[in-house]
């Protein structure tokens, strides 16, 4: 079960986590990290946005949409994540965003490129 937003931590609670686990689901969550994560999540992805106060600084995956004005990837590198991913911003300047993301991962080896393949081939 993948739980995304709005912001899933506004609705997710231990009772829901337990009910999903009781039915055999593994739970993956993508959050902006502005609220602490609920215990019991099986895979936690934090995707910080510029100008927010991120309190959840650990998890399985930190996914940074790039480029993002007002964000420095170096500020996240000391956080406790198993994976650091850069995802090109899906915007009108898609080609430039992809180029910027590739440059970033080539310059900063802690980061890996994350691509939404459906968008690359033109699917919504």
Would you write up a description of this structure?
The chain is an alpha/beta fold and 124 residues long. It has helices at residues 14-22, 94-107, 117-120, and strands at residues 2-3, 28-31, 43-46, 58-66, 80-88, 112-113. The chain has two domains: 1-49, no CATH class; 57-124, no CATH class. It has three helices and six strands; from the N terminus they run E-H-E-E-E-E-H-E-H. It is globular and about 45 Å long. The relative contact order is 0.13. The mean pLDDT is 94.
Shape: globular
Helix vs. strand class: alpha/beta
Query: Strand-residue fraction?
Result: 15-25%
Number of helices: 3
Largest beta sheet: strand ordering: 1-2-3-4-5-6
Helical proportion? Answer: 10-25%
Oligomer: single chain
How can the largest sheet be summarized? 6 strands, parallel
The pLDDT mean sits at 94
Report how far the terminal alpha carbons are from each other: 21 Å
Order of helices and strands: EHEEEEHEH
Count of DSSP E strands?
A: 6
Low-confidence stretches: none
Number of domains as seen in the coordinates: 2
* Gyration radius over CA: 15 Å
Quick description:
By secondary structure, the chain is an alpha/beta fold. Helix content is 22%, strand content 24%.
Topology (SSEs and partners):
Blueprint: E1 2-3, H1 14-22, E2 28-31, E3 43-46, E4 58-66, E5 80-88, H2 94-107, E6 112-113, H3 117-120
Parallel strand pairs: 1-2, 2-3, 3-4, 4-5, 5-6
């Amino acid at each position: 079960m993948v739980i995304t937003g709005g912001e899933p931590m506004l609705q997710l609670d231990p009772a829901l986590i337990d009910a999903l686990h009781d039915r055999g689901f593994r739970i993956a969550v993508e959050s902006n990290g502005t609220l602490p994560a609920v215990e019991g999540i099986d895979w936690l992805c934090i995707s910080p946005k510029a100008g927010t106060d991120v309190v959840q600084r650990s998890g399985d995956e930190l996914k940074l949409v790039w480029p993002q004005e007002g964000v420095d990837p170096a500020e996240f590198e000391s956080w406790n994540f198993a994976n650091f991913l850069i995802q090109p911003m899906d915007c009108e300047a898609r080609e430039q965003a992809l180029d910027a993301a590739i440059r970033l991962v080539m310059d900063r080896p802690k980061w890996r490129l994350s691509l939404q393949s459906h968008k690359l081939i033109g699917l919504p």
